[in-house]
Amino acid sequence: MAGNVIELGDAEFQREVLESSEPVLVDFTATWCPPCRVIAPVIESLASEYKGRMKMAKLNVDDHPVTPEQYGIRAMPTLLFFKGGKVVKQIVGAVPKAKLDEVVRQVL
Predict the structure, then answer these.
(1) Around 32, how many Cα atoms within 13 Å sit in the side-chain half-sphere?
(2) Is residue 8 among the annotated active site residues?
(3) What pLDDT, in 10s, does the model give residues 70-107?
(4) Digit-coded pLDDT (tens) for 43-59
(5) 39 and 94 in contact (C-beta within 8 Å)?
(6) 103 and 56 Cβ atoms separated by less than 8 Å
(7) Helices marked H in the chain — which ranges?
(8) Catalytic: which of 17, 33, 61, 76?
(9) Catalytic residue among 17, 36, 73, 94
(10) Residue 2 clears pLDDT 60, i.e. is over it
(11) Domain over 5-107 is classified CATH 3.30.530.20
C-alpha cells in the first residue's frame, strides 16, 4: 500500500506506535484476508484526511507474529487505536468508512 500508511514490523512497533507523540491506528492484516483488502483503501483515505493528527500503520501478522501475539490478535483485520502508548479502542473486522471515521474522531 503506497501513500500515507506506514508498513510496520515487530522491530519498528515500539518506536512508531508506543513512543509516538500522536495517536496511531494499527491495522493488523494478512495478505490472504479478503476483509483486509476491503478495508485497506478506507484506511489509506483516512490517513490522507488525518495526516499530521493521527498516524496510520499496518502490520502483516504472518511476517511479524510477535506483536500480534502480544496484543492477542486472533482475527483479521483487527484495528487497534493507540494513544500515549496504550490501546484506547479496538475494531475487529471490516467496517464502513463512516464508522471508522467516527472512532478516529473519538480517539483524537
Answers:
(1) 4
(2) no
(3) 999 999 999 999 999 999 999 999 999 999 999 999 99
(4) 999 999 999 999 999 99
(5) yes
(6) no
(7) 10-13, 34-49, 66-70, 97-107
(8) 33
(9) 36
(10) no
(11) no
